[in-house]
Amino acid sequence: MNILLGGVFHAAVLFLVAAGLQLVFGVQKILNLACGSFYALGAYFGITFIAYMTKYGMPPWLLLPALVFSGLLIGLVGPFIERLLRFVYDRDESFQLLLTFAILLMFQDVFRFLWGANPLQVNVDYLVYGKLTAGDFSVPVYNLMVISAAILIAAGLGLFLQKTNYGRVLRATAENRTMAEALGVDVRSIYAVVFTVGTMLGTVAGALVIPTAAAALEIPGEFVVEAFAVVVIGGLGSMPGALAGALVVGLIHALSIVIYPELELLVTYLIVIGVLLFRPAGLFGKPAT
């Protein structure tokens, strides 16, 4: 049970990053290689934010809401990065990939300059929320709160896209940008909002994980690989696919740590290859027409 919940916790964090990646691709048709950098940015900024809040007397039990707020706050870099992407919206996908990869590399230098090369971790005990214990089973309540937060975000995002007028406009823009523009939709503002939401999903995920893991310079590259594995397994542009893919990768991550850590990437790649061979569109993706 401990392994299962460890995998679900990793899947919850990974889902938030992959959901941002899916949302940006679904509407803007951009494969954002910088998604791992947003996760790392949320982690680093979250550490700094909590350090300042603790210095000025933040109660320990405010750790979770403070981390969520820090992720949302630093996620406001989204509109500035989106303006860079406007140069490649109507160009070949290779230009988009190169630009987002360049952004990832630039962020790594920013992290090294601002926070140094050594791994960092928040200095607040996340066990302030307690543990649930039953026999050999024990899980920090914080982990359950993060899993619950990811579920609520997934449900809220789904309801927003399906039930609100703005969500319908987003889906219409995703289906046919030219038609949406002809009907008077401000596509540029739509793109800015979508990219900012995608960025915030990544930064909030990074902020939420730092009580349990360190922020390090390797994070962006590692998370890009995992996020794209989730997208391939679940299906590009599919939110249910992002959830399913995150669960698969998260459980593999947890089992590998217990059995043989070096197997994690190998098993993940084998599943990705299997999906590409037998269901190229992914588990929930729509086949290309």
Name the descriptors.
two-stranded antiparallel sheet, single chain, 289 residues, mainly alpha
Could you please describe the fold and organization of this structure?
With 289 residues, the protein is mainly α. It has one domain (2-218). The chain is 72% helix and 3% strand. The chain is built from 12 helices and 2 strands. The protein has helices spanning 2-28, 35-55, 63-74, 78-85, 93-115, 141-163, 165-175, 177-182, 187-209, 219-234, 239-259, 263-278, and strands at 131-134, 137-140. Strands 1-2 form a two-stranded antiparallel sheet. A hairpin with a 2-residue loop joins β1 and β2.
**Proportion of β residues?**
under 5%
Beginning-to-end CA distance, first to last residue: 42 Å
How would a textbook summarize the main sheet? 2 strands, antiparallel
Shape verdict: globular
User: Number of helical segments?
Assistant: 12
Number of strands: 2
Helix content: over 70%
Sheet with most strands: strand arrangement: 1-2
